[in-house]
């Protein structure tokens, strides 16, 4: 953890982000999965502007962030691991898995709870899916997500290094599994036994409500299998499936102002509530099993 103290958590995370972003951009260029339907320049400007606003908001509202809370808990002996005297290596492993499950549960919640879905729709409204979609989250949702992670870290007394690695891996994996990139089928089948692949997560961005209500994981694929929310493939196939939300198949989601104001629009709220009712109805049906 000395490197984190010396260089700063933010600097290290940005370096990792930049490296993964460039790698995924090359991956998308070399092996694209779908033909994008909207202008990349406008979408990327909006999605990158949103993540810049998110970073500024989190740093302003939560100067400690999740890693800072881990240091605080460590210095005061707060949390389950400190109380039970759990060995550092075991605490780190359990904390990583627990945080991944917590993010999976949070993702499920923002789809099921109408107030949270109102903000999460900004992410799903993207009319194409590529690595920048992984960065497209409304600042209110990002702030709520940080509060949730901080609470989990404090309750566990998670080791700072484990929290830092989780944050880096979560960010990198989100860009990987949102990438408009093609893995060979044989590789995808093996990798998705453990990790969420682009083909697996792309199903979640389908306009088909039953498919949107699946594949909630960002890192490990085990949670969707365990909780029966796993759908292997989209009904229409990856090239023909429609990305985004039915109500917003236009240029609107590529605009920054429209995207930030989406949760506040009365018409958009009504549309979102209707979609949540459809999803709730779909949740009563047996899970899909498309091979």
From TrEMBL:
Cite the entry's keywords alphabetically: Lipid metabolism, Membrane, Oxidoreductase, Transmembrane, Transmembrane helix
Q: Which GO MF terms are attached to this record?
A: glyceryl-ether monooxygenase activity; iron ion binding
First-level EC class = oxidoreductase
GO terms for biological process?
lipid biosynthetic process; membrane lipid metabolic process
Q: Which residues cross the membrane?
A: 12-32, 44-73, 88-110
Subcellular locations according to the entry: Endomembrane system
Lineage, top-rank taxon, reads Bacteria
Q: How is this protein situated with respect to the membrane?
A: Multi-pass membrane protein
The question of whether Iron is a record keyword is answered with: no
InterPro entries on file: Fatty_acid_hydroxylase, Sterol_desaturase/TMEM195
Biased composition, class Basic and acidic residues, residue ranges: 269-279
| GO cellular component term, pick one | endomembrane system
* Protein name, as recorded: Sterol desaturase family protein
Q: Which organism is it from?
A: Microbaculum marinum
